Amino acid sequence: MKEATIQIKDLSIGYHSKSDTKLVASHITTTIYSGELTCLLGANGVGKSTLLRTLSAFQPRLSGEIALLSRDIQDYSDKELSTIVGVVLTDKCDIRNMSVRELIGMGRSPYTGFWGRLGKEDRRIVEEAIAMVRIESLASRMVHTLSDGERQKVMIAKALAQETPVIFLDEPTAFLDFPSKVEIMQLLHHLTRTTNKTIFLSTHDLELALQIADKIWLMDKVKGISTGTPEDLALSGYLSGFFARKGIVFDMETGLFRIDNRYDREIRLTGSGQKYAMVRKALLRNGIHAGCEIESESRIDAGETVESPITLYLSGNPPRQVASVEELLMCLET
Ligand SMILES: Nc1ncnc2c1ncn2[C@@H]1O[C@H](COP(=O)(O)OP(=O)(O)OP(=O)(O)O)[C@@H](O)[C@H]1O
C-alpha cells in the first residue's frame, strides 16, 4: 500500500554564509509516496541537488518542515537515518585500495558498524545487490579503476545493499550509456513496485523520466515546484509550458517532447510503413517537409517494404532509383 513517506511543508532551501543567505527555493509543499519512483526535473542551477541534500539531511533547511515517516527529519540520529535513507550523490569519491565488493559491503555499515565484519547474511545481501545492478563482472575490480558509468552503478548497488526503505539519488543516470540509463531507471522503478521502497531521484533525462516515473516534480525558479503523474502534468499544460523553447514541441499524442525541425521546402512523399517514416524523418532533418498530403510537382516514392528502392521523380527529369536514404539526400542536394 502506498504511504506518504516524506511530507514537506512550506520548505525553504538554500545556503547560509557568514554575510548573507542564498535562497534557492521556497514555499515547497508536497509529499513523496512509498511504492513510487519520483523524478525531479529542472534546469541547471535551479536547486535539484540542494533539495536532495536537504531532504536527506546532508544540509540544513532554511525553514519549513520535512517529516520522514511522520517524524521530523531533525529528530533522527545519524545512525537511525542510515537505516531509513540511502543516498547516492554524484560527487566523485576518491576511493583507493578498495574493491567494488568491499565498497558495496560498506552499504551494510549501518548494521555492522563502520569497520564491522560482514556476516553471512550481509554477504548474501551484497551479492544480491551486485546481481540486481548486473555488475557481477566488476565485483572484483578496484574502485579507482572504474569508468564513471561503472562507478555510478556500483554506488547504486551500495545503496541497495543498505536496504533502506527510502533511496535518494542525485542524477543516477548522468554518466551512463543509453541502454544502461534505461536499465537503471527500470530497475529503480521495479524496486518501488516489488519492495514498496520510496525512490526519489533528480535527472536531466526527461524522456526516460516521462516514460518510467510514477510522479514528476518540475522545479522552476519562477513557478516553484509542480508535481503529478507525467500524464496529469501533460494534460494540465505544465509540461509543455515548462520546457517551452523554440525548436522543442510537446507532442500530446505521445506525451513526449520532440524536436521541431524547421523546414523551407515541401515535397510529396508516397509509400508506406517504416521506409516511408524514415524517409520523412530524414527529409525533415534536412529542412524538407514531406508527406502524402503535400501537393508538389516533384515526388518521392519510398516504396512499400524496407527492401523496396526509393524512387525520386524530380520535375523535368526521368525517375531515378536510389538504394539508401543517404543517396536520396545527395540527389536532393544537387
Ligand atoms: N555550497 C553552496 N553555497 C552557495 N550556493 C550554492 C552552493 N551549492 C550550490 N549553490 C547554488 O545553489 C543553486 C542551486 O544549485 P544546485 O546544485 O542545487 O542546482 P541543480 O539544479 O542541482 O543544478 P544542476 O542541474 O546543474 O546539477 C545554484 O545557483 C548554485 O550555484
TrEMBL record:
Q: Which Gene3D superfamilies does UniProt cross-reference here? A: P-loop containing nucleotide triphosphate hydrolases (3.40.50.300)
Primary location: membrane
- Name the InterPro entries on file: AAA+_ATPase (IPR003593), ABC_transporter-like_ATP-bd (IPR003439), P-loop_NTPase (IPR027417), Siderophore_ABC-ATPase (IPR051535)
Give the molecular function GO annotations.
ATP binding
Q: Which domain of life is it from?
A: Bacteria
**Pfam families, per database record:** ABC_tran
Q: Which residues form a coiled coil?
A: none
Mitochondrion: present as a keyword of the record?
Answer: no
Where do the ABC transporter domain residues begin and end?
Answer: 6-246
Q: Does the keyword ATP-binding apply?
A: yes
Q: Where in the cell is it found?
A: Cell membrane
Q: How does it sit in the membrane?
A: Peripheral membrane protein
What keyword terms does UniProt attach to this protein?
ATP-binding, Cell membrane, Ion transport, Iron, Iron transport, Membrane, Nucleotide-binding, Transport
Question: What's the name of the protein?
Answer: ABC transporter ATP-binding protein
Q: Which organism is it from?
A: Parabacteroides segnis
